[in-house]
Amino acid sequence: DQQVKQNSPSLSVQEGRISILNCDYTNSMFDYFLWYKKYPAEGPTFLISISSIKDKNEDGRFTVFLNKSAKHLSLHIVPSQPGDSAVYFCAALMEYGNKLVFGAGTILRVKS
Amino acid sequence: DAEITQSPRHKITETGRQVTLACHQTWNHNNMFWYRQDLGHGLRLIHYSYGVQDTNKGEVSDGYSVSRSNTEDLPLTLESAASSQTSVYFCASSEWAGGTQYFGPGTRLTVL
Known about the structure:
The structure holds two protein chains of two kinds. Chain A is an all-beta fold. Chain A is 0% helix and 57% strand. Chain B is mostly beta strands. In chain B, strands 2, 4, 5, 6, 9, 10 and 11 form a seven-stranded mixed β-sheet that branches. Chain B has a four-stranded antiparallel β-sheet with strand order 1-3-8-7, with no helix packed on it.
């Protein structure tokens, strides 16, 4: 039973346009969410996070939105660049928790 | 610069053999984790440790073991390798239990 779901295995976007990656979760005890980015043959790297007390967190071209009532978060990348092409993992952490629960990942391809 | 390394980067072994994957971090982090990445499943937690002599089972721990004799290292052992353990393995560490995890480059293991 996957508690964190990324229902889109892949996404293709034109350079300069917006990329929107989605993530749904089922466990209402999750209170901290993270996005990791992974290039081929490398380990995942932390990208951006959001606490459940917020509904938006922005860092440069990357913005994460959280809708607690819908148990949904999304990562927006504006403008998208070819170097953003990677696998993006959504992850969730429970209050006082100490383990991350990852989604299956979404492959983003940004076409130039 | 602090880093986390894994060795070997690639390993081919036969069914039934014992295999040990190494993980070494120079962050001086107490918390270390082992994940496996499989298509459609994202990253799944195998074992984790919160400090020397501490080890805990994760979501998919059957057939794997870890030991923590010092802060820097958390080797992962497959007692009797099975074809179902063919995967990419990632080690990670974090400063505090729920903190950002820093990942190694991964080990691709093939069990024939």
